Amino acid sequence: MLFRGTTVLEALPGAQTRHGQLNKTSSFYQKKKQDKQFEVALATYDKDTPDRWQNVARAVGGKSAEEVKSHYELLIRDVNDIESGRYPQPRYRNTN
Questions:
Q1: What is the 3-state secondary structure (H, E, C) of the chain?
Q2: 9-45 pLDDT, tens per residue?
Q3: Which residues on adjacent β-strands are paired with residue 22?
Q4: pLDDT, position 31
Q5: Largest CB tally within 10 Å, which of 3, 14, 31, 74?
Q6: Are 23 and 15 in contact (CB under 8 A)?
């Protein structure tokens, strides 16, 4: 599973995100594992947990508290943009 708001292309090493940041993940599978660790850590350490971002960073591994907090804030902005209709629903080809 990718971080919400991330496409498969953006998960590739060196790919540019729509927010202009370069993804420096060494492999798609490493990213997938980190995504799951991030998801579990967010469920484990809610907004009322002291030192939430330090705990999330430790659970993900290889990221600082500032990096995981920044990523979370980016995801929240993406969700808000999607829910507000700023990004149209994708149109899929009819395969029938």
A1: CCCCCCCHHHHCCCCECCCCCECCCCCHHHHHHHHHHHHHHHHHCCCCCCCHHHHHHHHHCCCCHHHHHHHHHHHHHHHHHHHCCCCCCCCCCCCC
A2: 444 444 455 555 545 545 677 788 888 999 999 999 9
A3: 16
A4: 83
A5: 31
A6: yes
CATH topology of domain 8-83: Arc Repressor Mutant, subunit A (1.10.10)
Nearest residue to 76 via CA among 42, 40, 25, 34: 42
Predicted model pTM:
0.60
Q: Which amino acid is at 48?
A: D
94 CB-near residues (< 8 Å, 6+ apart): none
Tell me how many degrees the CA angle 37-38-40 measures, rounded to the nearest 5: 65
CA 65 to the chain's CA centroid: 14
Residues 6 or more apart whose Cβ sits within 8 Å of residue 45: 52, 55, 56, 59
